[in-house]
Amino acid sequence: MFVSKVTLGLLALLVVCSVKDTSAELSVGELLERANRDLMRDIDEPLLIEGDIAVDDENNERNADPCTSSGCMWPKSSDGKVYIPYVIANQFSSRELQVIQRGLDSFSSMSCIRFTKRTNQRDYLSIESRSGCYSYVGRRGYAQTVSLDRNGCIYHNTVQHELLHALGFNHEQTRSDRDNHIRVVWENIIDSMKHNFNKINTLNQGTPYDYNSVMQYHRTAFSKNGQPTMVPIPNSNVSIGQATQMSQNDINRLNRLYKCCKY
Description:
Layout: H1 5-18, H2 28-35, E1 47-49, E2 53-55, H3 58-61, E3 82-88, H4 94-106, E4 113-117, E5 124-128, E6 133-135, E7 143-148, H5 156-167, E8 182-184, E9 230-232, H6 248-257
Parallel strand pairs: 3-4, 3-5, 5-7
Antiparallel strand pairs: 1-2, 6-7, 8-9
C-alpha cells in the first residue's frame, strides 16, 4: 500500500504530540531535585546546600541565614519600590524566555518588588542556564548567578522559587519552628543529604508554617528508599510541598520583609 510522505509526516507528528510532558505536574521540590541530580558541575560554579542554595563557603553558611545580618536585602527606592536589576543570558528559546519573564513579572502584581533590566547597576542578578537550578540567598553584591538550566528548570514555580532565594528566603523545612509542624524521618534520608534538614535561624516574618509554600520541598525529598523524609504533624495526611506558585504566606512574608506598604 502506497503511503505518501505527507501522511507519514502527519503520523509522526501525532506520535510526538501524543507523548505527554508530565514535568509540569511535578512539585517544585521534585523538579529541583530531578534537575540537580547527579550533575557534573563546572569548576567555576558555587557549592550547593539544601539542593539548590548556592554558597561560597559551605562550612560558614550551612547553618546561617544571611538575612539575619545587614546587607542581604535589596535596597528600597524613595518611591517605595525595590528595583532589582537583572540580565538574561542569550541561551534561552523564546518560549523559555516567556516563562522566565512571567516569573519575574509575577512579583510586581503582589509586592513592591520590581525586577528591571540592568543598565549600569553594580549589583544585579545574572539569569543563566548553568548546571541545574540554584540561587544565592539574598543580595551578594556585583553579579550573582541565578541558574535556570534549560534541562529541567524552566517552570513558573521553579523560577519563583529561585527568585525568592535571591530575595533572601530559605526553604520552609529549615525554618526555626520546623519541628512543631513536620517530623523529619532521619532514617529515610540519604546519609550525605542529612545536613539539608538542619534548622536555621530564619526570618519568618510572623507568618505561619506553610505546607503549601513554594519554598517547601516534597514529602520524599532526599529519600534513600522512596519513603517519606518529612511527615506533617499532627495530621500526617496533610498535603505537603505541592505548590505550583507562591502561596499567600510566601507573598505576605515577602511584603513584610521588604515593608511593602503598597504595590
